[in-house]
Design brief:
This protein has 6 domains: about 90 residues, membrane protein fhac (Ubiquitin-like (UB roll)); about 80 residues, Ubiquitin-like (UB roll) (Roll); about 90 residues, Roll (Ubiquitin-like (UB roll)); about 80 residues, membrane protein fhac (Ubiquitin-like (UB roll), Roll), CATH 3.10.20; about 70 residues, Ubiquitin-like (UB roll), CATH 3.10.20; about 200 residues, Porin. It has an 18-stranded antiparallel sheet that branches. Strand 36 and strand 37 form a beta hairpin. It is built from 13 helices and 38 strands. The chain is an alpha+beta fold.
Length: about 775
């Protein structure tokens, strides 16, 4: 049969062509021939090599009807082509294809609810994206996905019009025109079957709401299946934490009105009975530590059953076993329910599994910081037994470096093993270097001119180097500092500082004076435990005080003691001993842990002989809904030595941000009258300050802790060296504010109301500060 002078097409435009090729018999049968060459026609974007890869025929093969069908099926299945034909010209096999168009672009019109970049990504996830092959089936799937996303936001009236426009080079542009319509609102949430708790009490446990004052912002009145599922779990947890171990939500009904504006939700609840705990048994491998393990159980005999306490107990036991290398311990509480007596007993089965060790520690995300800077903070070692406590300590130590905005750790199993894990630490670096020249404005110091070169993580070594120059009406400073956290391999730190400072009176004073201090110091920090460090330091200071006719009397007294006329110069050699304990989970935005610091500065030699002691204690406690209770207390005391007066320019001040908000900065404490009878605020040698803050994440910010709002209660005051401490003299204030870890540093804005202001106290409701962490 001669096939070389005409083309015999084998084509598959539709599925029926397969049947025709398979069953046409001798009508389409060809005499098999040996393929001498293969030629591809019709391709524009697809490489010829791609066609050859999918073609089940090679040069030298014998071509027949069966291989023709297989070849067409294989090429058509790639999805690259909408038509495939196979012809023969002599011994040459000719593959003729018609390509499907490629997608040139995917655009959205009318979308307000979603960011367009997010929509483009979601379309790519279903296979519809720029440069991909256009397929009508994929387009239909993309439309359904787009509708699903809108419906998850309560927008059930969504209408989508899709336009496919051919463009040059066999491509198409796809545009989704979206009419979002009006969001459907929850008109009613109804509970059926609840007897132990009222509808109001149950509504407090869930997040879905009927329209209210703030639902326009929180969108809690917009239904979604995910929200309802979360609320159902919240209701179950609420009941089970209060003894109702068998509580069930038997069914839910969600109805929408014909105009798609209102949604009605009904939850059918079966409460069951309230149970108390009759007994708790431990079974399994206890390693002779039954008493230690039992002490971790929060749920006790005779108590009302609480699912939360039972879960927390299981977690504590699992973490406890993890400290001994049992990373995958299985702690499984099994209930034994006595419905007649409304009691439940638990048997906690403990299967520690195999003891595992850490194969290797992997660090990722540190584009600048050297690995050794992070690794030296680790207390979990490679090749040693897995220790959950040490891994947590390691994570917290890395976070407290202050070089990263986020630190996470994972411990996946090593594939193919049952007794090895890897520790994968991932960090997100933040800028730690600043070069700044400019001007600013501070509420306390007014115009501020500053310039600084600072690198907290110099060249990724973890060392701090800084040159700071700033000037304001009250403070002017030039300081060079250098800190080496690991001066020795065992973690002893060393810090140098060379500085020149001038201090003027607080702006609230009408008097004037000038204090110039030139000095240097060196300080060493010695770690004693994972969270404790003791510091030893020595310095030298030259203090010059210049007074004027209107200077406060205490400053004139200092000049009388250490100089003559209106000027005085005094030297001091302060020795420093300090202790710090930091167990916070983060130095940037702590949510739990403590920070304590005690400092004693003594100058036994030189002109100025004095000591001053300070103690600060901060406590952070996680609260409900992502909130944090933050407590801060400070006490300071200064005294002269050897009959010398305490230097007045080393006084402590209170009032304003960082101490007692709602009062003007540095306005609390002893006052002195000037020649016109105006009040002069001098601070004091004693200070007591306490702060309570409730910090909450900003609504809509998800898990971002860098932007928060807070309420506060402050109290405190300063006292002169001669005054006795009196609780009746403390000033109190309350208010609210916002804190933000900005690129320039921690920023706080607050609105405070004094609660017991006395006559003469200077109030200031709105205050702000840049550079404070509490």
């Amino acid at each position: 049969m001669k096939l070389f002078h005409r083309r015999l097409p084998f084509r598959l435009p539709v599925l029926a062509a397969f049947s025709a090729l398979l069953y046409a018999g001798h009508a389409l049968a060809i005499e098999p021939f040996t393929v001498k060459d293969i030629r591809v026609e019709g391709i524009q974007r697809t490489e010829a090599g791609t066609v050859f890869n999918y073609l089940p025929v090679r040069v030298g093969d014998t071509f027949n009807d069966e291989k023709a069908v297989t070849a067409i099926r294989s090429l058509y299945a790639t999805g690259f082509f909408k038509d495939v034909r196979i012809d023969a010209e002599g011994d040459i096999l000719v593959v003729i294809v018609e390509e499907r168009p490629a997608i040139a672009s995917v655009e959205f019109t009318g979308t307000k609810e979603f960011d367009k970049d997010m929509l483009v990504k979601s379309m790519k996830d279903v296979g519809l994206g720029e440069a991909r092959i256009y397929d009508r089936a994929l387009l239909d799937r993309a439309e359904q996905e787009l509708k699903r996303q809108y419906m998850s936001r309560g927008l059930y009236d969504i209408k989508i019009t899709t336009t496919v426009t051919p463009v040059e080079r066999n491509r198409v542009a796809i545009n989704f025109t979206v009419d979002e319509g009006q969001a459907s609102r929850i008109k009613e949430i109804k509970f059926v079957g609840n007897k132990a708790y009222s509808d109001k009490e149950l509504m407090e446990q869930i997040k879905l709401r009927t329209p209210g004052w703030f639902t326009w912002y929180t969108r809690a009145d917009q239904y979604s299946k995910e929200k309802l599922t979360g609320d159902m779990e919240a209701l179950k947890s609420f009941y089970q934490n209060n003894g109702y171990i068998e509580m069930q939500i038997e069914s839910t009904q969600v109805a929408i009105t014909s105009d798609r504006k209102d949604i009605y939700i009904t939850l059918n609840i079966k409460e069951g009975e309230k149970f108390t705990v009759s007994d708790i048994h431990l079974e399994g491998e206890l390693f002779g530590r039954e008493e230690e393990i039992r002490s971790l159980i929060e749920l006790q005999k005779g108590e009302v059953y609480s699912g939360e306490k039972l879960t927390a107990s299981s977690k504590k036991i699992s973490e406890y076993l993890g400290n001994f290398g049992y990373a995958f311990a299985n702690v499984n509480p099994q209930p034994d329910i006595d419905r007649e007596n409304k009691e439940v007993a638990f048997t906690i089965f403990i299967d520690p599994g195999k003891r595992v060790y850490v194969r290797q520690i992997n660090i990722a995300g540190n584009t600048k910081t050297r690995d050794e800077v992070i690794r030296r903070e680790f207390r979990q070692m490679e090749g040693s037994w897995y220790d959950g406590k040490n891994i947590k300590i390691s994570r917290d130590r890395v976070d407290r470096l202050g070089f990263f905005t986020e630190v996470t750790v994972e411990t996946p199993e090593v594939p193919g093993t049952v007794d090895q894990v890897d520790v994968n630490l991932k960090v997100t670096e933040k800028p730690t270097g600043n070069l700044m020249l400019g001007a600013g404005f501070s509420q306390e110091d007014k115009l501020l001119l500053s310039g600084s070169i600072e690198q907290q993580n110099f060249a990724g070594t973890g060392n701090d180097v800084a040159l700071n120059i700033n000037t304001s009406k009250r403070y002017r400073t030039i300081a060079i500092t250098q800190n080496t956290p690991y001066f020795t391999d065992d973690g002893i730190s060393r810090r140098y500082e060379l500085f020149y400072r001038t201090i003027r009176p607080p702006l609230i004073n009408d008097s004037d004076y000038k204090v110039e201090t030139l000095g240097a110091n060196v300080k060493f920090g010695v770690p004693f435990t994972e969270v404790d460090r003791v510091f030893f330091g020595v310095g030298i200071e030259r203090n010059s005080l210049e007074t004027y006719w209107d200077s406060p009397q205490r400053y004139k007294d200092f000049v009388r003691d250490f100089g003559d006329g209106q000027d005085a110069t005094a030297y001091g050699i302060p020795f420093t001993v300090a202790w710090a304990r930091d167990s916070r989970d983060s130095s940037l935005v702590p949510t739990k842990g403590r920070y304590q610091k005690a400092n004693l500065e003594v100058s036994p030699m030189g002109d100025m002989k004095y000591y001053k002691a300070s103690y600060q204690h901060q406590y952070f406690f996680p609260m409900f809904s992502g909130g944090t209770l933050a407590l801060n207390g400070m006490i300071d005391y200064g005294k002269g030595l050897g009959g010398k007066p305490y230097p007045v320019f080393k006084n402590f001040y209170a009032g304003g941000m960082g101490t007692v908000r709602g009062y003007e900065s540095s306005s609390l404490g002893p006052v002195e009258r000037d020649w016109e009878g105006d009040r002069e605020y001098l601070g004091g040698a004693k200070r007591v300050v306490g702060n309570i803050e409730l910090q909450f994440p900003m609504p809509g910010m998800g898990g971002d802790r860098t932007l928060r709002w807070f309420t506060f209660l402050d109290g405190g005051n300063v006292f002169s060296d001669e005054d006795q401490f009196d609780f009746g003299d403390l000033r109190y204030s309350a208010g609210f504010g916002v804190s933000w870890v900005s690129p320039l540093g921690p920023l706080k804005l607050s609105y405070g109301i004094p609660l017991n202001a006395k006559d003469g106290d200077r109030k200031e409701a709105f205050q702000f500060q840049l550079g404070t962490g509490f």
